[in-house]
Amino acid sequence: MALKVFINGTLFDKDEARVSVYDHGLLYGDGVFEGIRSYGGEVFRLDEHLDRLWDSAKAIWLTIPMTKADLAQAIRDTLRANGIQDGYIRVVVTRGAGTLGLDPNRCSHPQVIIITDHIALYPDELYEKGLEIITVSTVRNHPAALSPRVKSLNYLNNILAKIEGLQAGCIEALMLNHKGEVAECTGDNIFLIRGGRLSTPPNEAGILEGITRQVVIDLAREAGIDVREVPLTKHDVYIADECFLTGTAAEVVPVVKVDSRAIGPGAPGPITRDLMKRFKAVTRG
Length: 285
Ligand code: PMP
Description:
By secondary structure, the chain is of the alpha+beta class. Helix content is 29%, strand content 27%. It folds into two domains: 4-117, Aminotransferase class 4, branched-chain amino acid transferase, N-terminal domain (D-amino Acid Aminotransferase, Chain A, domain 1, 2-Layer Sandwich), CATH 3.30.470; 124-284, Alpha-Beta Barrel (D-amino Acid Aminotransferase, Chain A, domain 2).
């Protein structure tokens, strides 16, 4: 059976699910999206994802033509129609079909798209051995130009960084902000551990406020770990005892090498392992 894709209230077979080539989502990256997980048929942190989607839309003057409750129901219905228990959900809201000019007021109506599928996580091996990443030269978007807090369809900033990482043989890459501080990776937030204390860049560093990031902050605090959202530099990364990344797709993944320097002993550390275990307990019971 072909996977069904929701577009504006209708479920289409995957190959029949289409939007116009005049859609400003395609022409200009004008739109917003969310990546969400389902575990055992339950949508993980759905309210948080919907709030972020609405905030992103508001920031770009895009009105989502549904209520949060209706979109939540549509997400659950699409998952069920596809018989997906453990999966990945992509919600996309485009500006809609317009003219070839920029003017969003000439777009007819936003397209609300829900794709539910299975996720290709990093290979299991990376969760045991840890990831090697590099710092790339692509600077994270200046928050005063296009805030990284807006999860927009224009991901070129991240894609350029990803390409740089891939060229160097790394599947994830660390991006600095315009001040030279650590911001985040191309699709994941970053955490450091030193002296038993957890730190991660604050919103003001120009990051996407990750839902997984917040889950991990809460789990760490519950475990009695001191967590700080503070500006960090590459130096802090290099001298960290442990490092890990968080994201909806990646979940919690250890980092053992940055810019050819081993982090701690060059193997996933005990606090990272503990938080991975706690995260698994929250998502898989
Ligand atoms: N930063 C960026 C740039 C991302 O694209 C993502 C993944 N959506 C994240 C961080 C992690 O956010 P979340 O935990 O909400 O998936």
